Amino acid sequence: MTVLSSTLDTRSETYRTNRAAMEATLAEYQELVAEAVAGGGQAYIDRHHSRGRLLARERIELLVDADAPFLELSVTAGYGTEFAVGGAVVTGIGQIAGTECVILANDPTVRAGSLNPITVTKILRALAICRENRLPMVFLVESGGADLPHQLELYLAAGEIFRDITALSAAAIPTISLVFGSSTAGGAYLPGTSDYVVMVDDQAKVFLGGTPLVKMATGEDADEQELGGAAMHSTVSGVSDYFASDELDAIRLGRRIVAGLSYRKLGPGPTESPVDPRYDPDEILGIVSADLKIPFPVREVLARVLDDSRLDEFKPRYGPNLVTGFANLNGYPVGVLANDRGVLLNEDANKAAQFIQLANQVDTPLLFVQNVTGYMVGTEYEQRGMVKHGSHQINAVTNSTVPHLTVQIGSSYGAGNYGMAGRPYNPRFLFAWPNAKTAVMGAEQLAGTLSLVARASAADRGLEFDEEADAARTRTIEDQITNEERATIMSGQLYDDGLIDPRDTRDVLSVALSAVLTNECRGQRGYGVFRM
Question: Do β-strands 89-96 and 70-73 pair in parallel, antiparallel, or remain unpaired?
Answer without folding.
Answer: antiparallel
